[in-house]
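User: Here's a chain of 810 residues. Predict its fold as C-alpha cells.
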Amino acid sequence: MPGPCRSTLTWLVVLLAGALAVAWAFPRVFPFAPRAWSATREDAREIALEHLRALGPLPADPYVVARMEENARLEYRLLQRLEHGGRPAILASDLPERVLVWQITVYDSGAHPRDWSYQAEIGLDGRLLSMRRGFPASEPGGTLDDGDARRRAAVLLGGQGVELERYEPGVVRRKDLDKRTDLAVRFVERGRVLGERIGYGLEVTFAGDQLAGSSFFVDDPDDAQITVALQPIGLFGQIAFFSTFLVLPVVAPVFLRRYHLGELGVKRGLQIFALCMLLGLAFFAQVSRGSTQDSIWGVLSRQQLTWVWGAQMMVVLVGPLAIASFLSWSSGESLCRERWGRKLAAFDALFQGDWKNRTVALSSLRGYAAGFAIAAVTLLLVLVAQRGGAVAPFAFQLGPFWNHARFPGFALVLFLVLFGLYTTLFGRLFLLPALVHRLGRWTGGGLAALLTSFVFFAPVILLPLKSAAPIWLVFSAATVALFLATDLLTTMLAAITSAAVLSAYPLAVAAAPGVQVQGWIGLLAGALPMLLTARHLVSEREFVYRYEDVAPHVRRIAERERQRVELETARNIQSSILPRLPDSIHGVELAHVYLPATEVGGDFYDVLGLEDGRLAVAVGDVAGHGVASGLVMSMAKSALAVQVTFDPEVEAVFRTLNRMVFQSARKRLLTTLCYALLDPGRREMRFASAGHLFPYRIGRDGRVEVLESVAYPLGVRPSLEVVPRLARLAEGDTVFLCSDGLIEARREGSEEHFGFDRVERALSGHAGRAPRALCEAVLAELSAFTGDAPREDDLTLLALRVPEERRALR
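Assistant: Prediction complete.
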C-alpha cells in the first residue's frame, strides 16, 4: 500500500475509534448530561410565556431574556449521592431534570435589571418547572391566612401536574414588609434522595394575597462547604478568560525586538487580528442578552446592559485576545520559519485560499481525527479518576456564554475558533518553539504543556480539582506532541474539535431536531477543512511555505540594522589592525592621525623600522565601505607586514600586494597604495604610488613639492609594473602622506571640496613645525572649512621629518 494511502487510512481509523470511544464513555462520565432534550430555546420561550399569563397580564412590549441555567450545586450533590449507591432513586426522581433548564425572564420595556416582571424555568423536555411574578417591595397587598395559602398552593401545583402525595404537607413561612406580608408555602419531598439532612421540594409564594408563583428550593446545611468546593473553578475560569494579560507581557517584547530587527512581518498577523475581532463581534452579538442576566450595572436598563456589556467584552476580552493572537503568530512564525517552516504550510495555505493540495487535506484529516482521539482519551481518564472518588459535573461543560445563544452550536464554534487561534498560536506556535530552542525538545515541550494546562480553559472540570490536574496536563501534552510531530493546522483543529466534542455531544444526540442540528454544527465544524479537501488526499501536490510577509518599511529597518552591525564589525577590524606609532623610529620624528568616518572605509597605514636603519612607510585605501572593505584592508595590511620583513623593496611590495588583492577582492574593491623606503642616513626616499595620492615633501623654507609616481591601483591587472622614484631630502624636510578623506572633505550641503590647493597652502604655512604640530594645524584648517559636517570617508595623515645630520648619526 502506498505511503499516502496508508497514512490516510490510519487517521480514518483513529477518527472512527475516537468517535466510538466518545459515544461509549460520555454518558458514563456525565450521568446527568441531558438525554430527553426535546425543547429548543424558542420552544421554551413560547411555553413559558403561555404559562406566565396565568399569573397576570404580560407587558405590552416585553423584553424577553431566554438563557440556559445550570444548577452546578444540585448536580454536585447528585454526583455525591451516586457514590453512595443512590442511583436508582436519583434517576427515578425529577432532580436530574433540574440540573439544566431554560430560564425565561420577562421585563417591561426600559425596566432595570432587578425589576423583572415574570420568570419561568422550563425543563429541556418542555415541562414547566417553576414560574414567578415579580412584585415591587413597596407595592401594598392584602392578607392571606395559612389555610387559604395552602389550598391555593395545592391548586396551583396540581394544575401543573405535580403529585402532591410525594410531598409532605405544606409549611407556611411569612416575611413582613412595610406594606404587606409575603407568604411562602414549602412542600418538602418525602423521598429525601439527597440525604436525610437535605430538604428540597417546591415552594409557592404569595405577595400579600396575590399569587406570585412557584419555584424549586434546596435547604442544605452544608451549602457553605459546596461553595468552598466550587470556588476554585471560578478562579480558574477568570484566569483563562483574562490570560491575555499574562500572555501579552511575554510575547510583546519578543515581537518588538524582532520587528525592529526586520525578522518578522505583520500582514498575516493583522489578518488574524481582524478575524479574531470579527469572531468576537459575531459571538457576543449572539450571547450578550442571555449572559447578562442577573447582572446589574448602575442605572442601566436591561436592554442597555446587554449592549454595554457586549461592547465592554469586545474591549477587555476580544481586543487583547486578538492582539495576543497577532503578536503570537508574528513572533512564533519568525521562530519556526527556518527550522519548522513545514509546520506552517497548511495553516498559511488556508489564509491564501490555496487549499487544493495534499498538505491541507492531510493536516485537516489529522486534526479532526486527533481531536476525537484526544476527547476520547480525556473521557477515559475521567472514568479512571471517578473510580478514585472524583466527580465531573456536566454543568461546567456548557459555556462560557455560548449555551445562552439562540444558535448554541454556531456560537460554540465561534468561541472555540476564537480561543483556539489564541491558545494555539501562543501556546504552541510561540511558547513551545521558544522553550524547545532554549531547553531542548523534552524539557521545553514538558514545560510548555505544564504552563498552558493551568492557564487556558480546561477540557473538563473534576472535583476535587487536584484530581483534574493530571488530566489537564495530559490534554495539554497531547497538543504539544501533536505540534512537534505534525503541524500548526493539525494542532489547532485537534484542540478545537476535542473541546467541541466534550461540549456539543449532548446536543447532537438530543431528541429535538433543532438542537441536534446545533450539536452537529459543533461536532462537524472541525471537519469542514477535511470535507472541502478530502479528494486531495490522493493528490501529489504539496504546499510549500514561503515567507513573504516583511513589509517594505520593515525591510528598510532590517537593512539599517544590517548596516549598523556591518559598520560596527568593520570598525572593530580597523581598530584591531591599525597600529599605534611611536614618536620616532631610527631618529625620524613621526606623527599620524586616523579619524574614522560615519561609514567605515578601508584606510590603512604603517611605518616599520628595518634592521638596516631604513623605514618602510605605507598609506593605502580600499575602495568601498563596510565589512568587505575592512577585510581587504586587513589582508593588505597583514601582507604588507609580512612582505616588508621578507623583502622590503618597492617593486617586491607592490608585486605581492597586487597579486593578493587581485586574487582575493572583488573588482569594485580596488586598493590604492603609496609605499616608500625612507633612508634617514642618506636622506633619500625611494617610493611609488599605485593610484594613491602623491606624497608631499615640505622644506624648511615652506616650499611644498608633490612627489609624483603613476601606476594602476592594486588589483586592476594580474601583474603590476611600478617604476620606483627617488627623492632627495634635506635636513629637516618633512614627508607628508594622506588619504583622499582629506582632499574630498566638504562643507555640509556643498559640493566644494577642501582640495589640493588648500592642503598645499596649509602645509606651506606650517612648514618647519614638528610632525605632530603640522598634522594638528592641517586638521584645524580642515575643521574651519568643513564646520560640523560629518566625515564621509576615513581621514589618514602621516608626517615624517628627516633628522638633522648629528641626530641621524646617533
